[in-house]
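for the recovery benchmark. tokens below, seq after
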């Protein structure tokens, strides 16, 4: 009798725990995942050790210029980067001695120099061009070129730590 009543309690408990684990896995892999900022390439927009929530789903459907994204490094797959989308498919991006331009509109006064080549490219279908906000300390598309959108892990939707920076990062 005792074994039967224990079994009737254990089975639903295990099923409930399994469903909760599966739901959490789906939530974090599709809807939202936590990440931590490492390095200074996004200063002043993001600071080192700042905590963010990214949405893998939004990165697939709603990616546009100026979005902050987390991507898997195109040349070092063990490394993830946080960058800003500067140009989307079909955009013409130019980096020259006067600044950085997207579709003939200046987006930065940072100029090409001894470390960065002059560029004039059209972003291919299925790719984006990403830049760090701190252009002097950023490993970004100026080095490795346009990034396939399949390498984008998520779009930044919220900052939750430190408390002084809670909100939607811009």
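predicted aa per position
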């Amino acid at each position: 009798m005792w074994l039967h009543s224990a079994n009737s309690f254990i089975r639903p408990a295990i099923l409930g725990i399994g469903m909760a684990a599966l739901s959490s896995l789906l939530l974090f892999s599709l809807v939202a995942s936590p990440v931590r900022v490492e390095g200074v390439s996004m200063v002043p927009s993001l600071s080192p050790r700042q905590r963010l929530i990214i949405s893998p789903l939004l990165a697939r459907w709603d990616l546009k210029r100026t979005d902050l994204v987390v991507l898997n490094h195109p040349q070092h797959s063990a490394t993830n980067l946080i960058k800003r989308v500067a140009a989307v498919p079909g955009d013409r991006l130019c980096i020259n001695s006067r600044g950085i331009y997207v579709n003939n509109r200046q987006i930065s006064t940072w100029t090409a120099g001894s470390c960065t080549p002059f560029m004039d490219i059209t972003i291919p279908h299925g790719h984006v061009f990403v830049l760090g906000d701190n252009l002097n300390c950023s490993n970004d598309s100026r080095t490795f070129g346009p990034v396939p959108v399949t390498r984008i892990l998520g779009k930044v939707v919220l900052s939750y730590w430190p408390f002084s920076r809670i909100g939607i990062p811009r």
